[in-house]
Design brief:
Helix content is 32%, strand content 29%. By secondary structure, it is α+β, with helices and mostly antiparallel strands. It folds into 2 domains: 163 residues, no CATH class; 89 residues, Nucleic acid-binding proteins (OB fold (Dihydrolipoamide Acetyltransferase, E2P), Beta Barrel).
Length: 262
């Protein structure tokens, strides 16, 4: 199995004295283990699961702490034909999307093929684990956590702001969301749409009680989008927003129409 190595470096605050609060530090390391198991399982198996004690098809280990601010290293052994470059890129994309720092869809086809089955589900499932990762950072606002490759390339940077982003609030929208579908997974009911009001792509999850007719509009809009046509739909939705920025993270959709909703 090829080995993927990640460094986790806490800096500033008590981390500069080579220590973390015992409870918060332990919860942070536990959160890292859960987040990595969820992410690597999704990478290897193309599915998202909430049980985070292991990743099928991979082995994850923690290495002894290193000297520095507060540094330790994770070793990941992945089975199958997955290159280290794709693995690092997948971790980078997943962690940054979960904390709202990834705007663009990856253009590299091998990476896009790995992301496609998980669409918007993976960052949503990662929220709880990454909240634990942030525990020391929320207690000490000056502290930062850098996740890097062995030679120093930064894959993700966590701080108090990214921690607050992981504490979403739900708002029932009085007006419909207008947009077209750009991605959709019929099994998970997760997808992405281009929101014409916010002028960006946002993840969504369909209510399981939607009618067959409403679900068929999703695939119609996706088909129209692939052909370069309008494919406009109107969605009744609840917005899940970040409390620090009031930025929409995803939509929970309860009704769909090709005509303006009353």
């Amino acid at each position: 199995m090829p080995e993927i190595r990640l460094k986790f470096r806490y800096e500033n605050g008590t981390a500069d004295d080579n220590r973390l609060d015992l409870y918060d530090g332990a919860k942070s390391l536990e959160g890292i283990a859960r987040a990595l198991n969820i992410t690597i399982h999704a990478l290897v198996n193309g599915e998202v699961r909430t049980r985070a004690d292991a990743a099928a098809g991979a082995e994850l280990y923690i290495r002894a702490p290193q000297s520095g601010s507060f540094i330790f290293e994770a070793s990941i052994f992945i089975g199958g034909a997955i290159t280290s470059g794709i693995a690092y890129d997948f971790i980078k994309y997943a962690f940054n999307e979960a904390v709202g720092l990834h705007e663009d869809e990856p253009r590299r086809r091998p990476l896009q093929q790995r992301i496609e089955p998980t669409i918007g589900e993976l960052p949503a499932v990662l929220e709880t684990a990454l909240m634990d990762v942030h525990r020391p950072l929320l207690q000490e606002p000056e502290m930062r956590l850098f996740i890097t490759r062995p030679r120093g390339e930064v894959l993700a940077t966590f701080n108090q702001d990214t921690g607050l982003y992981l504490q979403p609030q739900s708002i029932i929208l009085p007006e419909p969301v207008i947009g077209n579908v750009t991605r959709y997974n019929t099994i998970s009911r997760w997808g992405k749409l281009y929101d014409r009001s916010e002028r960006r792509i946002i993840s969504f999850l369909l209510n399981p009680d939607l009618t067959d007719r409403e679900r068929s509009l999703i695939t119609w809009s996706l088909h129209e989008n692939n052909l370069g046509r309008d494919g406009r739909l109107y969605f009744k939705a609840t917005a899940v927003v970040s409390p620090n920025q009031q930025r929409t993270k995803r939509y929970l959709i309860s009704r769909i129409s090709e005509h303006p909703l009353q």
